[in-house]
Amino acid sequence: MRTRSLVAGVGVAAVLGGLAALAGFVVPGLSATFVFVTIVGIVAGVQGLRYALGRRNVDYRSTDTGDPELRYRVPTPGDDVDRRLVGAGGWRRTGASNLRTRIREVAIESLVLHDNCSPEAAEEHVEAGTWTDDPVAARYLGADVPLSWVTRLSLVVRGESSTPARVSRTVAAVEAIHDGDDSVTERRRERGRDSAADTVGEGRP
Amino acid sequence: MRDIETNRWTGIEGAALIAGAAGVVLQQPSLLLVAGVGVAYTAYAWLSDAPDPRLDVERTLSETTPDTEEEVRVTVTVTNAGTTLTDLRLIDGVPPALEVTDGSARLGTALRPGKSATFSYSVEAVRGEHVWEPLRAVVRSPSAEREHSETVASTEETTLRCAPSLEATSDLPLRGLTTQYTGRVATDVAGDGLEFYSTREYRRGDPLNRIDWNRRARTGEMATLEFREERAATVVLVVDARRESYVAGEAGGQNAVERSVDAATRAFSSLLDSGDRVGVTALSPRECWLAPATGADHRTRARELFAANPALAPTPSDEPYYPIVALRRLRRRLPSDAQVLFFSPLADDLAVTAARRLDAYGHLVTVVSPDPTTGDTTGHRLARVERRNRLARLRRAGLRVVDWGERPLATELARAGRRWSR
Amino acid sequence: MAGVSVALLAAAFGFAGLGVASAGALVPAGVGVLVLAVGLFRASRRAVTVGATALFLGVLYAGARGGATEPILLGALGTVVSWDAAEYAIGVGEQLGRGADTTRLTLVHSATTLAVGVVGTAVAYSVSLSVGGGQPVAALVLLLLGVVALVATLRGGADDGGSNRTRR
C-alpha cells in the first residue's frame, strides 16, 4: 500500500511537471538527454506490452441470461446413464458396477417376462452367458464365455473396447430379447448343442 | 445486486503506453497524440460505473384466459424512473412452461429518465396457470466495462390461465374399457344404453333414432327399440405427477405429465358424458382431490382443477413427496367400488408399485401410459427396455395397460379395447 | 446488425486514414480489417482482437514513418471504435440473441465511444498546438513517466477491486 501511494505521488508530480513544462514553465533539472529519453521509453514500452499481452488470457465476464423463452426442459428417461457413460468415460468404479447391476437386472427380468424363464433359470442364463449370441454382452454381465484374441483385437481397432461401446452392445442384446419372436435362450441352447464340440477345446484365451 | 468487470477494455492502457513510448523514442508527435487518445479511452473504461437502475415494468397480455394452443401477444413496457441508462438490456421472465413462438422476449436500448421502451412477443398457450417471473435488467457503464444485473418485478403480477375445454364431445372410446368394469353392471332394466334389450309399442314422443325402422318397413307397425340400461360406474382418474414423471422424449416437447393430464381431461368429459361418476386426483406432493360426482357443476369444478391445480402444473414442484403416506391417503379417499384410470409414464418402479397397490386394494386399475422413451442413445434405450418390462410386469399381474406412443390416444385405446374383449 | 455496420464502417475509415498517412501501413491495416470482419461474422472475440491489433500496428507504422498527424489520428480512432463496436456486437449477441431489437443500444454505445475519442483527440491536439518553446521533449518524457506510474497504481487498484467483486 505504501509503495503504491509513493508511486502514485511520483506519477502525479511527474504529470504535473510535464504539463507545466509543456505550458512553457521551465522545470529545473529537467533535460532531455538521449539516455533519459530512451530509458523512459523502454520502461513505458515494456510496461505497455505487458499490459497489452494481458488480454491474451483474460476471461470476458457477463451475466448469463439463460433461455427463459424456451420451455422448461425435462429429462428423457435414461439421461442419467448417458451422463455417466460420457462423463467419467465409464471408468469410475462404483458407477460402472451400479450400471452393470442395473443392466443385469433388466436382462434377467426381460428373460422372465418375455422368454418365460423362471427367475432362477434366467439368472443361470445370464451367469453362463447363454442368454445372448453376443459374447461381448455376455461377458459384460459377468459370464465366462470365450472371446478370441482376433475378436478382441478387432474390437480395440474399431474403438469398440471402451465401456460405453460394451454397454451399448449389452443393451442391444437385451433389446433383442424383447424383439425376437422366438425365445432367445431356446435358440441358443439348440445352437449350443450343435457347436458344443467346437467350443469345448478352445477355452478362455 | 452485484457488479461484474467485463474485462472488455483490458489492454487499452498497454496500447496507450506503447504508442507513447514509440512516440518519445522515435520523436514522433503524432504517436504521442495517439497515446493521448489511448489515455482518454483508458479513463473512459476505468472511471465510469454501472448505474443503479430504477425501472417500472408493465406487462399486458392480449388474452389472459386463452384456449390451449392459442397465440398470446405479450407487450412489455419499461419506464426509466431513475438516472440515464446508456446501456440497458432487458430479458423478460417468460414462465417456464411457455415457449416464445414469435418475436423476442429481450430488448437492448438506452433510456433517458422518464422515457419508456416497449417490446412484444408471442407465446403459445398451454394448459395451466402461468405466472411471469421478474424481468431481468442488465445495465452497463457507458464504456460497457462494468456490468450490473438485477431483477425487476412488474407492478402487477402477470398471470396467464389456460383451461382445457371440457365442453366439446370427447372422442375417447372408453366405453370399450368401462363396460367390462365391475361397476358398470349391465342391468335387467330396459332403458337407455347400448346393448339391445327388447322392443315395445311406439309411444308418442319417443326419439326418432329409437324407432325400429326395419319392422316398420316389414310390417308397417311402429315399434320402439329398448336397450339394456347400464348402471353408472365410479371412476377416479389418478395422474402420476411426481417429479420422476416429468420426462419427455424430446427436449421442450410435451412432457409425460402434460400428456397424462391432457388424456385425463378428455377421459373425464368422455366418462361424464356417458353418465359415470368421475373423480380426479394426483400422485404429487401437492394437494389434488376432486371427489367422484356427476353434473354440470362438477364439470366446471373439474375444468378449474385441470387449469389451475398446482399438482397438475406443467412443471414439477420441489417439495418432498412421501409415496407410502400418499398412497395410504389415496386408499382412504377412494370409494370402495371405484375403478381407477392411472395415467403414468411408468418412468420408475414406484409407478408400478402404486398401480399394483391400487389393484390389490380391490380397485379395477387401467394404466394409460404416455411413452416418454426414445432409442437414440444407449441410456435412453436402456430406459426404454426397463419401461417395457414394467408394462409387461403390470400386464402379467392382470392390470390393463395402454401403451400410448406417438399415435393418438383414441387409436391406442381402440386397439387395446379390441385386445381385451378377445 | 447495426453494430456490425458500425464496426466495418469505422474500420474502413481507419484503413483510409492510415492509407493517406503512409502507404506501407496499408498492409497491416488491410489484414486487420479482414481479420476483424471474419471475427465479426464468426462471433470470435479473439479474431476481433487480432484484427484490431493489426490495425494498431498500422497506426504505429504510419507514426514511425512520420506520416501526417490528422490521418494517423483518424486511423487510431477508427481502430478503437471498430474494435469496440465489434466486441460489443458479439457480447450483445450472446446476451440478447438474434431476434431482439438492439439498434438503439448499439448506436448509443458506439456514439459514446466515438464522442470520447473525438474529445480526447481534440484535447491532445490543442495541447500539442499550444506548446510553447522551452523543453518540449523533456516535458513529454516526464509526462510519459508520470502516466506509467499512474497507470501502474490505478491498474493495481482496479485489479484488486475487480477480483473481489467478481469471484463470488
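The interface with chain C takes residues 4, 7-8, 10-27, 30-32, 36-37, 40-41, 43-44, 47, 51, 55, 60-63, 65 of chain A (CB under 8 Å).
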